[in-house]
Amino acid sequence: MTGFLNIAKEEGVSSAFVTNRLKRLSRTPCGHMGTLDPLASGVLPVGVGNATRLFDYFSGKTKVYIARFRFGATTYTLDREGEVILGGRVPSEQEICAALPSLTGELMQVPPKYSAKSVNGKRGYELARAGSDFTLPPKKVTVSRFELLKQTAPDEFSFQITCGGGTYIRSLARDLAELLGTQGYMTALERTQSGVFTIETAVPLSDLTPENLGNYLIPTESVLPFPVLENNDMRIFNGVRVPVSQEDGRYKLYENGAFYGLALVENGYARAEKKLC
């Protein structure tokens, strides 16, 4: 069994819980692409079988979130799971809209201390829970869209955020609040898109059984954003570099009409890069 499952993760369960459940249902190795914290819900793509070998090709794909931020307070975790510390004012919709362009584009973002980022071999959340004083270096992230949707409470607003992989939405809540001269944290998060996987076609974990799992399995080649390699030289399947006319890049490779894996074309020659069948 090889392919992808587009899971609609519920709040309150970890991404690891979802993956382990799918391993038991499929009796096949599985792995998720892009962790969702337990408080978050939404799209969680899971690779089944050899599809897990493709994670590097999806790591930078666009993600879309619906998030709610509360202003006039913060927490050490930058989300609702931490102890609330009151302080600061609640900005107006006009002030928020004026500040959003400053957090759009390529940004140097400091990850939350309560995160899986490593510091001298230890996870940030481990050091934070132990009361250690440390800093995490900023990393480059891309936010292509940051839009205010509506006010959801006297001190809370809803946003739609389109960003690249590795972006921390909790950090955006902190940074937006700082731009507005106040404090803020994330109260809710739903991922509605991760690359080609969308919430409209996601399936709840509770709907899956060993008997129907195959009905929801998405074929590997259907989600790969690469063209097909036109190749008649069967030596490529024996590790031989073969001449081709296509431009440099990655291609889907087929053997006798059946999907085989990926090929890499460089300087007029192609080689089989990754077997997935």
Report what the structure shows:
With 277 residues, the protein is mainly beta. The protein is 14% helix and 37% strand. It has 5 helices and 18 strands. Strands 1, 2, 3, 4, 7, 10, 11, 12, 13 and 14 form a 10-stranded mixed sheet that branches. The protein has a 4-stranded antiparallel sheet with strand order 15-18-17-16, with no helix packed on it. It starts with a strand and ends with a strand.
Summary keywords:
single chain; 3 domains; elongated; 5 helices; Pseudouridine synthase; mainly beta; four-stranded antiparallel β-sheet
The overall average pLDDT, rounded, is: 91
- Classify the secondary structure makeup into a structural class: mainly beta
The CATH topology name of the largest domain reads Pseudouridine synthase
User: Which stretches of 5+ consecutive residues score pLDDT under 50?
Assistant: none
Which CATH class of the largest domain applies here? Answer: Alpha Beta
Per DSSP, what share of the residues sits in E-state strands of 2 or more residues? 35-45%
Topology, number of strands: 18
Major sheet details: 10 strands, mixed
- Please give the domain count: 3
Separation of the first and last Cα atoms: 10 Å
Oligomer designation: single chain
Radius of gyration: 22 Å
What share of residues is helical? 10-25%
CATH 2nd-level architecture of the largest domain: 2-Layer Sandwich
Q: Could you name the CATH homologous superfamily of the largest domain? A: Pseudouridine synthase
Silhouette:
elongated
Order of helices and strands: EHEEHEEEHEEEHEEHEEEEEEE
Number of helices: 5
